Amino acid sequence: MNARLETRGLHKNFGSLQVTQDVSLRFDSGRRYAVIGPNGAGKTTLFNLLTGELRPTEGRVWLDALDLTALAPDARARAGIGRSFQRSNLFADLSVRDSLAIAVAVRRRVAHVFWRRFGSYRLLAERAEELAAQIGLADELALLVRHLSYGSQRQLEVGLALACEPKVLLLDEPTSGMSPEETAAMQALIAGLPRELTVVVIEHDMDVVFGFAETVVVLDYGRVLAEGSPEAIRASGAVRERYLGHPDDGAAPAGGHGR
User: Tell me: the pLDDT tens digits for 170-191?
Assistant: First the structure.
């Protein structure tokens, strides 16, 4: 299987503080990955290094055969890196339809003529409707974002990322703060994503992690503590001691919200 996204020897320092230390990871095409770890493990910093929000102190980031390391976030998005954030970045006064149509227009470089609504562009409107159906918001296209439930807003964020037609989708704690019903809806959304899409999720809910991930990466103090199948991670004494609980105490897995 070919690597779609790869990091090689990533380091990120903030002054004397080492946040990411020698992280080399491979994310293969079409697979589902979870990134977990305790508080301060460097999970969101890793995502920021992948998307270009941060530049590494050392190391490289590759997407297919393209070295992304020197590219800005918008160039990485055009290359195929899509992301949803832990905190909402939505426009509250736009409708679901217009939010998705704008994202599609930006991806396809369609100029917006100011006297025409985005909805009047047939192809944009059709693609917006397709995306809304994919993320479970087909019945809420006309609603303003401010009137959506919290869970629906998080689903819309995934739709905006999908509108950019990514090769790799990064989701930063997509179920954080959700009710059980909203979490189930997000799990269904993630499960229904196209299989050709590589999906990497930072997640604190271990039921979610072990429900969808094919490979789990455990970060600790900016380093890769362990990487493997969900079964291997569950069985790892080092992981249970550092993150999931003491290896001999039989405790249920616990979550972590570290960045």
Answer: 999 999 999 999 999 999 999 9
pTM of the model: 0.88
Is the CA virtual torsion 174, 178, 184, 189 positive or negative?
A: negative
Q: Is residue 242's pLDDT more than 90?
A: no
Q: How confident is the model at residue 26 (pLDDT cuts 50, 70, 90)?
A: very high
Residue positions counted in the chain: 259
Reported confidence tier of residue 105, pLDDT bands at 50, 70, 90: confident
Cα atoms in the Cβ-side hemisphere of radius 13 Å centred on 72? 2
Q: In three state form, how does the secondary structure of the chain look?
A: CCEEEEEEEEEEEECCEEEEEEEEEEEECCCEEEEECCCCCCHHHHHHHHHCCCCCCEEEEEECCEECCCCCHHHHHHHCEEEECCCCCCCCCCEHHHHHHHHHHHHHCCCCCCCCCHHHCHHHHHHHHHHHHHCCCHHHCCCEHHHCCHHHHHHHHHHHHHHCCCCEEEEECCCCCCCHHHHHHHHHHHHCCCCCCEEEEECCCHHHHHHHCCEEEEEECCEEEEEECHHHHHHCHHHHHHHHCCCCCCCCCCCCCCC
Instruction: Identify the CA nearest to 153 among candidates 91, 77, 81.
Output: 91
